[in-house]
Amino acid sequence: PTDVKLDFYVESFGNIEEANLEFSVFMYFRQMWRDPRLADRVNQSVVLQRDQISYLWFPDTYCSNAKRSDLMSPDTEIHSSLTLEPDGSIFYSRSAHIVASCEMDLRDFPMDTQTCNLVFGSYGYTDNDIKLSWKSTKILIANKEMAQFSLGDCVLSSKTMEYVQGNYTLLSASFPMHRRIGYYAIQMYVPCTFLVMLSWIVFWMNPEETGNRLTVGITTILTIVFLLGYTNSTLPKVS
């Protein structure tokens, strides 16, 4: 089988949407392999771009948990390049924007830590045809700054899945993300604390002023309900 090395460089992360259980990432996806049929065809390194790449064979790698991805789009529609060495070694790089599903456990929200994965594999070739593996043990990330999360170090792993057609190797890149509580502390905890303290005013009001006491209580409840509704609108409907 052809040994294919995978690697990618993360340019930036996009939105992490809890309501849709998904996250987006923009990267430069790179693959390296050697094609003996192309050995000694060139005397020096040759760089191919766009429609020239379609004349060569390259792996059909895709992201298995992607909801939307241009990873398998034609090279004429994205930025890509392929470098061919005299010994038949090939370095193939292309830009990719992936929106992938992310299984989230929101029971500790907003003090939770989520782990989102990108899983890559071959769509049509089994392990008898190509063997996928990571080129290195570390993924470079250009910008780790995120609005609501602190990004940890990427963890790489691989596993073999058995199907009727044969065995397929899946490569996984896991990104641990710890939620920053500052936004929710200011938008939820602090207002709710002041509202609860405000509701205590009824204990110092004249017991005969039933209307005023009732107004303060109802206003407090409606305000808290509004704050909870605003927060829940950004979250999935889970029990």
What does the model show?
With 239 residues, the protein is α+β, with helices and mostly antiparallel strands. The chain folds into two domains: 2-179, Distorted Sandwich (Acetylcholine Binding Protein, Chain: A); 184-234. Helix content is 17%, strand content 41%. Strands 1, 2, 3, 5, 6, 7, 9 and 10 form an eight-stranded mixed sheet that branches. Strands 4, 8, 11, 12 and 13 form a five-stranded antiparallel sheet that branches. Helix 1 packs antiparallel against helix 2. The longest helix has 23 residues, at 210-232.
List the helices and strands and how they pair.
Blueprint: E1 2-17, E2 22-34, E3 46-49, E4 61-63, E5 66-69, E6 80-84, E7 89-101, E8 113-122, E9 130-134, E10 140-141, E11 149-151, E12 155-162, E13 167-179, H1 182-199, H2 210-232
Parallel strand pairs: 1-9, 1-10
Antiparallel strand pairs: 1-2, 2-7, 3-6, 4-8, 5-7, 6-7, 8-13, 11-13, 12-13
Helix pairs in contact: 1-2
Domain Neurotransmitter-gated ion-channel transmembrane: 188-239
Domain Neurotransmitter-gated ion-channel ligand-binding: 1-152
Family: Belongs to the ligand-gated ion channel (TC 1.A.9) family.
CATH architecture descriptor of the largest domain: Distorted Sandwich
Number of domains: 2
Q: End-to-end distance, in Å?
A: 47 Å
Give the mean pLDDT.
88
Number of strands: 13
Residue share in β-strands: 35-45%
User: Unreliable runs, pLDDT <50, ≥5 residues?
Assistant: none
Q: Output the CATH class name of the largest domain.
A: Mainly Beta
